[in-house]
Design goal:
Blueprint lengths: L4 H4 L5 H4 L14 E11 L11 E12 L4 E9 L3 E13 L4 E18 L2 E19 L5 E18 L2 E5 L3 E14 L5 E11 L16 E11 L1
Antiparallel strand pairs: 1-2, 1-11, 2-3, 3-4, 4-5, 5-6, 6-7, 7-8, 7-9, 9-10, 10-11
Length: 228
C-alpha cells in the first residue's frame, strides 16, 4: 500500500530553520516554545473624541506540546494597569509540504484598574476566542499565516466608586483577521511581524473609555515578537 507523502510528511529541519508562534506547524520535537514582544493598538478618532490613541502592550506567548498535533497555547498581554491572560488548545495539521492548517479555542480573562477624578475604577471580564489559521511556507524561510478569529463576551463587571455594573450573559463580540510573517532574524532567533484588523463591539484595552458600542469598532493592531 502506498501512503501519500502529504499524509506523513514531517519536515525534520523545521525546528532549526522555522521556529514560529503564529504559523500552524505541529511541534514534532520541542516541548516548549515562547516569544516576547509587544503590540500597538490604534483607537478610532470618532470613538475617542477625535484623538487617535496608540496603545502599546507587552505580549508573551508560550506553547506547550501535547503530541504531534495538539498544543496548549497560552498568551499574556501586560500593561501593568490592565492585563489579559488566555489559554486554550490548538490542533495543527500539514495539508501539503508547504501548506498547513490549525484550529483552536481559547478562554481569556482580563482585568484593569484606574484612578479617575478621585474614584477608583476597576473591571474584570471573561471572553471566548475560536480561531482557525492557514499557513504557507515559502522556499526562502518566510512563513506566512492568515488567521481568522471570532470572540464572545462571557462576563463583564466594573466598579466606579460605589457604583457596580455586571453583565453576565453571552454576547457575540466580533471578528479579528491577522496576517503574520515569521522568519529567521539574528543568532538563530526568529522574528514575528503581524498586522491585525480587529472589528469588535468591545475590546478589553478600552474598558476605561467604554464597555461596548452599538456598532462594531475597527482597531488596527501591529504585533512584533522575538521567538526565544
Amino acid at each position: 500500500m502506498v501512503i501519500p507523502r502529504t499524509a506523513t510528511a514531517q519536515d525534520t529541519t523545521f525546528k532549526a530553520k522555522h521556529a514560529a508562534i503564529f504559523f500552524p506547524y505541529p511541534m514534532y520535537k520541542e516541548k516548549w516554545r515562547s516569544s516576547i514582544g509587544f503590540t500597538l493598538l490604534t483607537t478610532p478618532e470618532d470613538i475617542t473624541e477625535e484623538i487617535r490613541l496608540r496603545i502599546p502592550c507587552g505580549d508573551f506567548r508560550l506553547l506547550r506540546r501535547i503530541n504531534n498535533h495538539f498544543i496548549i497555547d497560552s498568551r499574556i498581554f501586560f500593561q501593568v494597569l490592565q492585563n489579559h491572560v488566555s489559554t486554550g488548545i490548538l490542533y495543527s495539521k500539514p495539508i501539503t509540504d508547504n501548506l498547513y492548517f490549525s484550529t483552536g479555542d481559547d478562554i481569556g480573562f482580563w482585568f484593569g484598574y484606574l484612578k479617575l477624578s478621585g474614584f477608583n475604577s476597576k473591571a474584570t471580564g471573561w471572553l471566548n476566542y475560536s480561531h482557525a489559521s492557514l499557513g504557507y511556507k515559502t522556499k526562502k524561510n518566510l512563513l506566512i499565516t492568515f488567521k481568522a478569529q471570532v470572540s464572545v463576551n462571557l462576563f463583564y463587571q466594573a466598579y466606579t466608586g460605589d457604583n457596580k455594573a455586571t453583565i453576565g450573559k453571552r454576547e457575540y463580540n466580533g471578528e479579528t483577521f491577522t496576517l503574520a510573517l515569521e522568519q529567521p532574524f539574528y543568532n538563530k532567533k526568529h522574528l514575528t511581524l503581524a498586522f491585525s484588523a480587529i472589528n469588535n463591539y468591545f475590546y478589553w484595552q478600552t474598558w476605561a473609555l467604554f464597555y461596548k458600542t452599538q456598532r462594531k469598532v475597527f482597531y488596527p493592531q501591529v504585533t512584533v515578537g522575538f521567538i526565544l
